[in-house]
Amino acid sequence: MKNTLEKKSHKSLFAFLAVGVGLLTLTSCTANFCSDEDRAQMAYPYDQGVTVYCTEAEYNSYKADNAALVEYEESIGISGKVFDCNDNIYKYVPYQVNAYGIYEFTGAKTTFLQGTVLKAAYSAGYPLPSLQYWAEIDNQVLEACVYMAYQSDRGQTPTFDVTATNQVAPDTFKESLTAHEDSETVWSISAFTKADSDTVTEDSKIIKHSVLRQYGYLKFTGKDNKLWANLDQWYKNAYASNEAGLGIDGCPTSDFMTYYQTQVNNKVANIRSCIATRTGSYGHYGSNANWEVNITKKDWGYAWSKGFLEGLLVYPVSWLVDTFAFSFDSSLSGVGQIWALILVTLIVRGLLMLVTFRSTMSQQKMTALQPELAKLQAKYPNSNTNQAEKQKLAQEQMALYRRNKIHPMGQILVLIIQFPVFICVWSGLQGASTLSTGQVLNLRLSDNINTILMNVSGTWYANTTGWWTALVLFLLMAGVQIMAMVLPRIIQKRAQKNAPKLSANPAQTDQQKQMKMMSIVMVGFTIVMGFMLPAAMGVYWLISGLLSMLQTLITQLIIRRRGANKKTR
C-alpha cells in the first residue's frame, strides 16, 4: 500500500512538472514581432563602433596624455580631423595592448564589442582585424548617417543605398556639424555630451539630435531593410582596398565575420518588445540600458501574418496596453504603464470569469461538498483495493454531482481556456513596446525580476536599479498567488469545523495527500515562474491573484445563499 501511494504521489509530481516544462516551452511558441529594421535599431546601441569624436581642444588634451598612442594612430590614419572642411571635429580610437601583444579597445561604448565579441573570438582562435579596419567601418557608418541627417534637414525622407556613389553630404552641411553639443537645431555626431561616454553622468547626458543616435542602425541594415547588407558591402570594399591596414592582411576573415554577426544577432534575438501601435522611440538598450530606439508601427494585419494566436490574442493585449498607457501618460514615464497593466488585467480576467463562471462554480461546489464526499468514501472503506467498491463509490459520486449540477470535467475546461490565454497575455506584455520604456521606482517593467534581484552590484541597496521594488513586487505577487490557491481550502476547513469527524479512510487519505502534493507543486511552480517573469507579468499576476480571491469569495457566497434557500423550502 505504501509503495502504491508513493508511486501515485510521484506520478502527480511528475505530471505537474511536465505541465510546467510544457508551459515554459509553449510560451516561446508565439511569434516574435520584431522586424529586421527593429533588430538593426536595437543592435547599434550595443556596438557603436570604436571611434571617439571630440573637439580640437579635447583632442589636443588627449594627445598630450597619450602622445605615443595618438602619434601612432595619426601615422596609420585613424586619428585626426574627421572632415577636411570642419576644423572643430576630431577623432581617435582609445585602446591598449595587453601582455600578449593584442589590442583591447577601452572606449566607453566598446563594452559589448570588446568584452563579449573580440575577447571570445580571440579565445576561439579567430585572428582579429586591424585597427584600420574598425576605423574604416566607423568612417563609412558616419558618412551614411551624415547623409541621412542632411536629407532630413532638407525635408526629405532619409534613405541610403550603399551601392550608390553620389550619396555624400556636401561640405556646407558637414561644416555645420558639432562633435557633441546638445542642440535641437544643430546636428551633433556623438550620442552623449562627453567625448568618451556611453552613460548619463553629472558631466554627460544624452544627445537626441545626434546623427549616430538617429541613424547608426544603418551599420546593421541595408536596402529593403535587409540585415547586414550595408556592412557586408563595406567589408567587401575594405577587403578589395590597397590601403595599408586593409585588404587581405587587415580585414577580418569570413569566419570572423560570421562569428561577429552571430554574436550581435544573438544579443537582440531574444528581445520581443516590438509591438508598437505607433512608430516612436522605445526601450532601454545598450550596455548601460540608456538608449531608446525607433520601433516601427505594427498593425493587426501584421499580427495575423505572424499566426492565429498572435492576431487573436497577443496583439489585442499589446494594443490595449499601448492605448491605455498613452492615454494615462503620453511621455511613458512608468506610472501610465502601471495603470494600463491594471486595466488590461481587469479586462482579461473579467472575460475569463464570464467564460469560465459555470466551471468555476462547479469547482467551488465540489469543494463545498467535501463533507458529503467524505461520507461516501467512509461508506466504501476498501475502495482503494476493492474494484467492486471502487465502482460503487464512483457511481454514487457521479449521482451526487448530478444532483448538485456539478460537471467534474469543468476544471479541465477552465485549464484548456486559461492555458493559451496565459501564454498570449505573457507574449503580449513581453511584446508591448510601451512597457520597455520608462520605470516605476527605478524598476523597468520589461526587465525580468530574477535579473534585477541577481544584480547586486553598485548601489543596489539604494534601489538605484529597482532592486527593492522588484523584491517587494515579487513577494506581493507570490504571497497573493499562494493565498488565492489556499483560500478555497481555508473556507472548506471553516465550513467543516463543526461537522462530525469520520473514521479514517484510506481512499480519502490517499486523495487528500495527492491534492496536497498538487497544491505544493503549483505553489512552487508559481514562485519559480514569478521569479523568472518580467516585472510587467508580475504586476499582472498580482492583480490576477487578487481577482481570483475575490472570485472565490463571490462564488462561495452564491453557493451558501443557494444552500440556505434550499433549506428554507
Give a description of the structure:
The protein is mostly helical and 569 residues long. The protein folds into 2 domains: 2-34 and 301-563, no CATH class; 52-270, no CATH class. It has helices spanning 2-26, 36-43, 56-65, 67-75, 111-123, 131-153, 171-174, 211-215, 229-239, 247-250, 254-269, 300-306, 308-328, 335-368, 370-379, 387-403, 410-431, 449-454, 467-495, 506-532, 535-568; strands spanning 52-55, 80-81, 89-92, 95-97, 103-105, 280-285, 291-295. The chain has a 3-stranded antiparallel beta sheet. Strands 4-5 form a two-stranded antiparallel ribbon. Strands 6-7 form a two-stranded antiparallel ribbon. A hairpin with a 5-residue loop joins β6 and β7. α1 (2-26) packs parallel to α20 and α5 (111-123) crosses α11. The longest helix has 34 residues, at 335-368.
Task: Report how far apart the termini are.
Answer: 46 Å
Structural class: mainly alpha
Q: Can you give the mean pLDDT? A: 85
The count of β-strands is: 7
The domain count comes to: 2
Assembly annotation: single chain
Q: Report strand order across the widest sheet.
A: 1-3-2
Radius of gyration: 31 Å
Largest pleated sheet: 3 strands, antiparallel
The fraction of residues in strands falls at under 5%
Number of helices: 21
Low-confidence stretches: 1-16
Order of helices and strands: HHEHHEEEEHHHHHHHEEHHHHHHHHHH
- Overall body shape: elongated
- What share of residues is helical? 55-70%
